[in-house]
Every structure is written in C-alpha cells, then in structure tokens.
Design goal:
Pfam families: Sybindin. One of its GO terms (cellular component) is endoplasmic reticulum. Part of the multisubunit transport protein particle (TRAPP) complex. The protein is α+β, with helices and mostly antiparallel strands. Helices cover 40% and strands 20% of the residues. It has one domain: Beta-Lactamase. It has helices spanning 30-50, 91-107, 121-139; strands spanning 4-10, 16-21, 61-63, 68-73, 79-84. The chain starts with a strand and ends with a helix.
Length: 141
C-alpha cells in the first residue's frame, strides 16, 4: 500500500486545479474529488476565523483512524493537501517539495493561466519522481 493516497491542489478561490490518486482503496470520481476539495477549502477558511489563536493559518493536519490529511497553504492562498496513511511524519517536507515543483514547472510555464486546472507534463513527470523518491526513502520500495 502507498504512503500517499491522493494529492489535491486548490486555488485561492476554492477550485480544484489538480488531483492525483495514488492507489487509495476507495477511488473517487471527479465529482467526489471536487466536493472534497471544496469542503476542505471551506473548513480551512472557517478554522482560520474561529481559531482562538491569533494569526492562525488554518488546519494543517487532520487525523482520522484510517488516514491523515496534511495541508500546506502558500502565501498566495493556493492549498496543497495530501491524504496519506496514518502516522506518517514527514509530509510537511513533501508538501513543500510539491510546492517548489508547482512554482518551477507550473507558474513559470508561459502557457499556464493562473487559477486554471494544471495541465503541465513536466510538473506531472517531476511530481511522480518526487513521490516515488519519497516512497523509496520511507519504505525502501
């Protein structure tokens, strides 16, 4: 079983701009992935407003019995979140690597329009390599 079940990238408006499934047991269709991204965006925004802590950036980790959901929000408001096996500790670093790939291969692409779905072959290729490298370092497979 993979350490990462799925990866979502949500634009600052709450729209799903990238989704990749990495072999989760319950595969989602397009509508389910859009609903989950919208729900997470809303929960993240509400948690920022309701937090008793001044300067709260929203939910960064949601733990459940069967999965963990790790989130990284960039300064522009774009959210990156992974659904992974419970108890994996290094996902914050992986999310930052994914953000670096996003800035290098998506934002620097002259044909990419901001806030639109990501269709970039170099991003997909380098993302797959980063995920595979992470899997090998974590499990040795």
């Amino acid at each position: 079983m993979a350490a990462i079940y799925s990866l979502f990238i949500i634009n600052k408006s709450g729209g799903l701009i990238f989704y990749k499934d990495y072999g989760s047991a319950g595969r989602m269709d397009t509508n389910d992935s859009l609903r989950l991204a919208s729900l997470w965006h809303s929960m993240h925004a509400i948690s920022q407003q309701l937090s008793p802590t001044v300067g709260c950036n929203g939910i960064e980790l949601l733990q459940a019995d069967t999965f963990d959901l790790h989130c990284f929000q960039s300064l522009t408001g774009t959210k990156f979140f992974v659904v992974c096996e419970p108890g994996i500790q290094h996902m914050e670093g992986l999310l930052k690597v994914i953000y670096e790939l996003y800035t290098d291969y998506v934002l620097k692409n002259p044909f990419y329009e901001m806030e639109m779905p990501i269709r970039c072959e170099l991003f997909d290729l380098n993302l797959s390599q980063a995920i595979q490298k992470d899997r090998v370092s974590l499990f040795g497979r």
